Batch of 3 targets.
Target 1
Amino acid sequence: MGLAGLNSALAGLRVSQQQISVISNNVSNVGTPGYSRKIMPQSTLAVGGTTYGVRAETIIRNVDLNLERDLWTQVSAVGKFSVQETYLNRVQQFHGPPDQELSVAAEISRLRDSFSALADSPEDSFLQSSAIRQAEEAADKVNDLSKLITTLRNDAQSEMKETISRINELLVQIADTNKQVRDMQNLGRSSAFAQDQRDIAIKELSGLIEVSFFQRGDGVLVVQTNRGQELASERANTLNFSANPLSPATYYPLGIEGVYVGNPAISTAVDITEDDLGGKLGGLIELRDVTFPKQMAQLDEMAHKMATRMAAQGLRLFTDTTGSIPLDTAPDPTTNPPTAVPYVGFSAVIRVNQNIINDHSLIRTGTYGATVNTGSNEVIRRVLEFGFSDVNYQQAENLNAATQVDLLNRGGDDLQSWLGLYSSNTYVGARDLSPFASIADLVTSANGALDDPNDQFQITFSEPRTGLGPTSITVDLSVADTFPGADAITQLVNHINNAITAAGVPAGLAASASVGANGELVINTRGAYEIDSTFAATGMGEDGLVFLGIVDNAGAAVAPQDAYFDVQVGNASPVRIFLEPGDSEVELIAKLQAVEGLAVDTTNFALDGLLRLRPGNDFDTPNFGGDLRITGGPFDTNGATYGTPPALTARTAIDNGVNIAAALFGTYTAAAGVVTENPPTRNVNYGSETNGSLTAPIPTQSFRDTLLGPAANISSRVVGSLSLIDFAQRMVNEHSQNFNANASYLEDETSLQDILQTQFLDESGVNLDEELGNLIVVQTAYSASARVLSAVDDLFRELLNSIR
């Protein structure tokens, strides 16, 4: 009993001393980063069911691995958003505060203002120079932003290399520590302090790359990427990466190296570049391969459309260094490699056309070689109203197949007959002849001026353009008096109409006489007419003719009025297009082609007979866009002979009472005798084909927002824009939103990290109050063990003394 008690007391003293040492070490490391609270478990020492004291177990850590895993995940998230904030802030600083108007959008807005000022005084050399200088500033701003994005992208890649170097150092450190932990546990020694060192390395590693892990039974902590690729166990699987200079045309994996686990020269190496690595490395990869390429694609799209939209209005204001503008052909992601838009990187080289810099007057006259009248602001106006807007040009055509009019299928009729839009010629006398009861009364009132036989005049009808006539009729008042009629004018009209029939005046001339609203003589024809009072000895002479209220125009035939419509291109004077007798589509197209600045689609017209007109010198490849107005004259269809159309056209007839412009294009509807006319012109917006892999017709957009960049795989995130300034402003806003969202994420993730860090320290760190309490308990146990030893010692002394 005494020996057992002595052993138990000695064991208690030894364990208490060790506990005091552990607690003292905890207290001394209360402020040491990465230090976790150590615990020395103890167990009862028993042999054969008899207790012989206490035994100290191996020192362990008080760490919750699940909580530590959550903490490391947050460290990774903070690392990612933190590094991205640094880079995105550089772009934000470039744009500047909104109230200072330093952004690309502000420069383009000022360019529009300079054109607005120049439009009022197009010949002002100072205003011309000012507009050109502002164009240079806008181009320089685009260049500077493009250069900044490329620089930041290269900086991100350089920092990737440095980050990977540090990751590899930490992986080696973790692998070495894992070996120490394994060996110590195999020897039954405490590995707690080595595990602390390992955790410190893993925490730093988590800030650089997001990791997952699991702990093996031998104490080794296997560290993996978040996708399960092993990075470290007892050995380190280091990362490999080579950095080549980046340009707008390079992209991963073409021209840009990836991040590999292992040597990429060996087939077992694994490319983890696109694995959303997290941490600082993941943030840098996202900046290099996603964020900055997207911003470059946005800027290239804006720069290209700024150049093409100005050129579309006849002013090649912006070009590349060779004086060219990249084509606007569609991207095709299905080719190998993908076919990118031709203007990748254009924002880095856009500049003001050197020809305009050399000759400032070109900003007024345009760069397409046209002759522009002195003082004209037509080119400037087109750029201002159309280059900066969403409308490229206005086009006259009918897109509604149900109402289209095919001008080719006329059944042999000329356009006048086919549409019922004939030439017209009307002569209206100047005297009311209805008060005279008969021609005889009229002659009597003339006091000899109209006596038989000198009471005749001649009317000649003709249409030289179609070969009708000339055919003359003789109007004889003595004969007219024999015709029925309630009054003199009625007798005269009946006589003239009878003479027209008797003389065989061609029906195509549609000659006729009628009584006017005021009792005057009215003569109508589709051709020319000539009135002659001295054609023969029996002519009544001018005095007699004047008595009738009629003018003698012998020798000067009065031409008919042809139906017409006016075509106006831009600010040019309207050009009147006449439909003359005998005109077919050939003559109509020729007259339209003669209008300066008007382009006619003759290719498709030959196929379907539909009129299509637009501003420009050529319908398919025009040098300028702009506005177009089609205005019909005061002519409505009447008696059109429009027959059954071909299957392509749904309209079966041309209704009466339709204005000439609406009739030619078919842009009207008729219901219950009411005709509703619509203008034939429509706005044609700027449109870029979106995907070259699609079959025609390929959908178009004002600005492309997908399949951009060198790999034809970037979405700009700038949608819904139609005009240049709006796109530029939305692009700047998207950059700001990206920065603000990242800052918000960083704040949230940092707050969560702080919460987890506090929770981790509370559970795994050293608490002085708790340690001091434990120390008191251990000291008490130590004192108790010491008293047991003292008591045993006293017993032994008494025993010895009794023996003596």
Target 2
Amino acid sequence: MRNAFRIAGRELRSGMEGFRVFLACLALGVAAIAAVGSVASSLTTGLAEDGAVILGGDAALRMAHRDITPKQRNWLNRSAEVSRVLYLRSMAHADDSGRRVLVEMKMVDDAYPLYGTLEIRPTNSNKNLFDKRDGVWGAVIDTALLGRLKIKLGERIRIGDTAYEIRGTILREPDRISGARAIQLGPRFIGPAASIEESGLIRPGSLVWYFYRIRLTGDTSLKAWKKSLSGAFPEAPWTVQDRTNASPVIKLFIDRSTLLLTLIGLTTLLIGGVGISNAVRDFLSKKVQTIATLKCVGASSDLIFRIYLVQVMSMATIGIGIGLLLGALIPVAIADLLSSVLPIASRIDLYWKPLALAASFGILTALSFSVWPIARACEVPAATLFRGASGRFRGMPRMPFVIVTAILLASLAIIAIETAHSRIISIWFVGGTIAAVLLFTVASALVARCAKLAGHVGGPGVRLALANMHRPGAPMGNIVLSLGLGLTVLVTVALTETNLDAQITKSLPKSAPGYFFIDIHNNQTDKFREIAQKFPGFRELRLTPMLRGRVIRLNGAAANPENVAENGRWILRGDRGITWAGALPKNETVIAGSWWPADYSGPPLVSVAVNTARVLRLSIGDTITFNILGRKVTGTIANLRDVSWGTLRMNFIFIFSPGPLNGAPQTHVATVRTEWAEGIDIGQTISEAFPNVTTVRVRDVLLTVNEFLSKLGLALRLTAGIAIIAGTLVLAGSILGGQRRRLHDSVVLKVLGATRRRVLGIQILEFALLGVVTALIASVFGSIAAWAVVTQVMRLQFAFDPVTVVVTTIIATGLSATLGLSGTWYILGQKAAGILRNE
């Protein structure tokens, strides 16, 4: 090793030409992975450090539909400081303008907030903000609500049966994301919890969430307090959160986004690995004389391998260092952008774990794609090297190097799987990557074969371009693999996003109801049905009773979320909507078991959505126990249903048979479809007739979802663009590596009478054909991947978008032709005489 380091150092001091692409590919891939990991760490650290402020307390208890008992409240008051907060949705009415707007209500007590500060404008109105003055309660709202209701500060609005005076607008709400729904459908309204009884909004079964925020006092630890709570109320139906996981929804979103972006970063690094292999091979081809000389003076193949491995890894260290530096700085550059998109503050710092992970990926990639070409070059006899100055190395290296390469690649796959937030998705990614590499390799070989068979088609220019695609040493395989992988990622992301957009903006509005109505009381259903059916343009009404319950036992055993698959844990982590029905819901199909008779009156039976049954490992005859309003209800699974979730109709995971839940305190939910007409709004009519009923326009929901998906899609497209850049770098490296051969070809053509224009046309045609072929292959593979994501993961219908394929083809053709043209300019500028004399 001493000799290897000494000789390697001498060669490094003399210059390392041709490693620009090597450095760029490695730095780009490492930077992508390091940046994604650093951004995720900065967000999760902010989430953890501000946990108490985000949650609103050291811990929080959540219940749906009903409040805790006086005994439970007394225990909480004795153990810590307590703040009670209610969340619900309702319609806010402006008496003067007649406008009605859906609001997200947050009703607080005098102890709120336990952590942080509610900042409002004007700042001098914080004192006695929510007190009742002249018979009117105070409230604060999002600024957007002023514009929607056409009101000003100091004016009044009505929610339910209660009037509120608007005394300020919200600047900063410390616990805004605690208790928030996955989708915010309206602006925030904050009022006093003491006023909720007067509003008439809360009746048995109303859709209300009760939160009890806890601030620990004295020396009580969070762990000890939670243990005491569990001991005092072992079967309480509430869900407990604490400051260590203040917002599971945001945390899950960060984890899943990080996973997707990291996988695309790994694809970038894989593409860069092809460039690394090309760069090492081209570098060694220029060291033919040096390798031959070393062998002639007694150097062994192992010594030569060490010499060039030291040189390559020295350059890899520089590339990895550049990538780590970029990855560490990117979170600083986009901190303001993150704060505008996510409701948490990132913590700018140097996070060693994602940087170390990115460095590990970089080192393994550099080794995986360098060992093979170095070992293959070192195995060639010295005499052969002297005779074959072209430096093309063929054949396989010795078996130990093949085994080492396989181990390195396997290590890359293992680390990718073990460090990912979802092992299932990462396993699919690794398997898909292996399949993609094999498919692209086979496809490039088939294209080369077809080019050879079509060698006599067209004129001389076309025949030469086709010959360049299948000749020995042609860059076909490298270009198709590297650029094709990047384009496949781009096509997959683009087609997935296009299908989601089409589903949200075109398909869903046609099949989805126009309105959802929530919290319809039992004594209002007849009048509601009458008003809806008489409304101009009425088409369909579905009125369904609903309760919320929590799954507590599966076949008699405790329903622990950790005991089921990751994609099914959400079912057990909160309250789920439950209904009952005599007849099978429209557009649903029983695929196992049988539906009960319409007049069934026996023991409780339950119907379960088939996907839920699979993830919970349930089958016909199994039992499932719910806690519904404090009572345990156990049902036997009678059938499994296929549910069309993509219609946005009122679908349920669990449906009980008639009987056991009919008498429970309940509300109804309704979906209504009407013909759209300017100035005709059934939501306005229902709100006037039933102030307690919450109206949700499907159009508003779709706009909110589409806005969120657009932001996520932009991040995915930008990261996919990095993969395209990596493929472009590899393409550029292939062109640079083949310049020596192309120089000889152009000289021969010039001697035979070809003009500069003719030579230029041949080169552009060759690379344009490569771009078109690569784009077509990538479009096929990307379309298949997008189909799998849309139909198998998202359970939506897939529609092929030819525009995406056309754009991909234009991008690939333009890149290939442009880079080919840039390399050809240098070749055309060389004099033929000098080259011929050297030959």
Target 3
Amino acid sequence: MVGRVGVVLAGLAGLLVVVLVVGLAAVAVSVRRAVPDRSGEAALVGLQADVDVVRDAQGVPHVYADTAEDLFRAQGYVHAQDRFFEMDVRRHITAGRLSELVGADEQALEADVVVRTLGWRRTAEAELELLDPVTVTYLEAYAEGVNAYLRERSPGQLSLAYTVLSLQLPEAEIEPWTPVDSLAWLKALAWDLRSNYSDELGRGLLLARGETPARVDQLYPAYPGTNPVIVPDEVLASGVSGRAVRPPPGSAAPGPAADPEAALAAVGGPGEQALADTLAVLSAGGDLTGVAVEGLGSNSWVVSGEHTDTGAPLLANDPHLAPSSPSTWYQVGLHCRRVSEECPFDVSGFSFSGLPGVFVGRTPDVAWGLTTLYADHTDFVLERVVGEEYELDGEMLPLTVREEVVEVAGGDPVTVEVRETGNGPLLSDVVDPLVSIGRGIPVPSGSPTRGPGYAVSLRWTASDPGRTMAAVLAMNRATSAEEVVEAARLLDVPGQNIVFAETGQDGAIGYVTPSRVPVRAAGDGRVPLPGWTSAYDWVGYVPAEDLPVVVDPERGWLVTANNRVQTVGSGPYLGVDTDHGYRAARLETELAALVERGDVTADEMAELQLDDVNPLAETLLPYLLDVDGLDAFTTDGVDLLRDWDGSQDRDSAAAAYFNAVWAELLAGAFHDELPLELHPNGGSRWFTVVDQLLGSPDDPWWDDVATVNVVESRDEVLRQALVEARLRLTRQVAKDPGRWSWGQVHTLTPQHTPLGGEAVPGPVRSLFNLSTVGLPGGSSVVDATSWDASSGTFEVTAVPSMRMVVDLSVPEDPADVGGSRWVDLTGVSGHPTDRYHGNQLGTWADGGSYPWAFTPEALDEVARERLVLRADD
């Protein structure tokens, strides 16, 4: 069945093997044709006045216009210049039209069917009707700018990728861009950040295999009480002195827990393979933004001026996403030449190609950073369906039915009937494993008969139209902390933590939790629940004004790193499956030390982003060093750990060995009893799992059930992990441990989608992919270059996709950027032969960054190219 859409696109790559045989010459001729002109003049139909696009040394465009509409027209134009193929692939995926690009490919068709069933584009269409007229005007202006660039260019002039595709498939037909194309991308973002649904199904898989609830809880443990929450009780309780708002629990608190039978209502019965397939199928559309990968997360923190060297706040942010080429983000500046009510934008930061505005960045007055909230936004629901009706509280209600036609390039169209209950679409109609779940899952006593089987629907906050686009643009014109909070409350999905800071010596700092968070009548959202009774319904959303907001906390700083927002019971119920807080704990410790010393600098903020200490080392090392009975060959490796401080820099041999031991430990303890899909990835949850098991040397999880008449203990698993890790690095690197280094095995090769996969011939991959780099850091490390311990390699699966530090001081010289700096994983361009393609990777990999020019005077110092977009006479 369907895996991640990234996998589906890799299938597309298989169609391109013929490139070297029949079309290498055509590719060679076209290699420079799509690289845009970024200097001189160009006409842009629809402009009200000329627009200047000034690019700095990294190729980042800064747009200067007289009207807001012209500003967004020009942004659409430059996005299309640099990234249109990426934009086009995104809109085909989010519309469920991937088959129109790749033809009769089974995985592509299945992905289209799932996305159509979820109705992303339908929701985006409804969202357009919900938005205010000004936001719609900006979306339309952006689309006009995109289309102005497309109008007189063939596909091959837009991207070399189209030329490569045309060697096997009919030449792509480029459709005009629309506002709905932009809004649909927000649905993809929300899907990738949908929180605990994999954990929900994972718990079910374990119980279906006969695990007891107690053993399942061992693998999905509670958030460690020793790790920090974002908004401690003392901050919420600080009252007027901290200008904090304590959200009342009220109706936002979780409802009564489900009885034990109901808690098992959707977690057993169908068999291992069906549930495993379900985990894969429901990831369709999952790797769209580069978010839905193991090891994802983000760091963001802010320090008030009372603790900094300038007396003004400092803010840092580095979102952790899947690596790609080009990267997820697109740096841009959007500047009204004269800021006014009619043209209120003067903003710079990180955007998404395909959408107007800046998602993370700064204005002259405020800066903000984002991390994922991980509130629980989804529930799976069992439904009793009879014919075209479903049961609710003893009454049969009609299903909502619609037809979707999926066009297939070179094949016959496929018609899909989508059925929905009040909870959402019946995914079991299009995902076979969910049929098995409905047939075999245990339910509470007194439940209606299942007949041939229960159907399974999905309740998801993003299925309801929202105002996220309005929130983004409101943030872009914010001039104060109060306006940041007001703008954030418009953000429905995806759920985010936002830290912010105001400019100047008295600039406020703060935190706000914007998200559409469901209030459940019963249960806590950890497992699917019966849908034939309203006892488990969502009864609304937590009011935005009841979500945590903190301004100027007494201690003068705030940290978010995907950790729990507040202690249980101190605010509205947000969910349970957050990151386990080890990055947050490290940041809190290091930042507290900087604040205690005083005069925190922007350089120290940037250095903290590169902290590579593994928080697991302090816990695990004493146990590893206490293992006895090792041979001399293995001891050569163990000796590396004796004086190791836990730092995972690129040159560290100890880091290479420790991480190899970690992977082998997880395999030895858990692979024998867990299905492949649930093998430990080694992230923060597994830190907690192993930390708790280390104190129980005879816990059954240590035992290898495959061995006969032998019961393994903790020390045997640790001993074997040390031995196997020594052998693994000997095979992979060298026999001499002195020749090992973490950067040799912990590597990253940003790949183009869909032309960068292994199915594509090497010369084509080398053209579209970027160079391989060895990296420091690791999973659940502040420098979060994560890897999957179950994959058999140490290759990087998630990275700090960008890094930014914003200095909110006001220099005397407007050309002085102060301490503000930024860097992107790859760069702005998606054209493989462009000088701005991958031009930031080396600096990023080395932990460097570039001065962030914001004012016109500062930009003049670094400007390299200037394009004048002429108004249509």
